Amino acid sequence: MFSRGKLPGPLRQLQMDLRKLMLPYTALKLKEKKRNNLKDFLNVAGPMGVTHFLVLSKIKTSPVLRVAKTPQGPTLNCALVARRIFSRILL
């Protein structure tokens, strides 16, 4: 689970919530840098046994969640219309 581009605060929180949801099969403390690109993540995916990427990005119209199968699988693009973070759902 990583992002492409700069995410606003609520989407950053959604990204962390999705990482917590996917535990223990995701890296909760993954550090992303501006200079990282998709190739960098693909290069480490094979040795680490990563089979899918969840990529969260913000475009002009709405946020987009992409689910991609590595290394050359299909990609599912989903526009996020409504979203709730865990802190608003759980009491």
Q: How would you classify the helix and strand content by structural class?
A: alpha+beta
What does the largest sheet look like?
4 strands, mixed
- Count structural domains: 1
Number of beta-strand segments: 4
Number of helices in the DSSP assignment = 3
On the 0-100 scale, what is the average pLDDT? 77
- Which band does the percent of strand residues land in? 15-25%
Q: What top-tier CATH class fits best?
A: Alpha Beta
- At CATH level 2, the architecture is 3-Layer(aba) Sandwich
Shape estimate:
globular
Report strand order across the widest sheet.
Answer: 1-2-3-4
Determine the fraction of residues in helical runs and give it as a percent range: 25-40%
CATH topology: Rossmann fold
How would you describe this structure to a colleague?
This is Brix domain-containing protein. Residues 1-91 form the Brix domain. One of its GO terms (molecular function) is rRNA binding. The protein has helices spanning 9-21, 38-48, 86-89, and strands at 2-4, 52-58, 63-69, 75-79. A four-stranded mixed sheet has the order 1-2-3-4, with no helix packed on it. The longest helix has 13 residues, at 9-21. It starts with a strand and ends with a helix. It is built from three helices and four strands. The protein has a single domain, classed as Rossmann fold. The model has no long low-confidence stretch (mean pLDDT 77). A hairpin with a 5-residue loop joins strand 3 (63-69) and strand 4 (75-79). With 91 residues, it is α+β, with helices and mostly antiparallel strands.
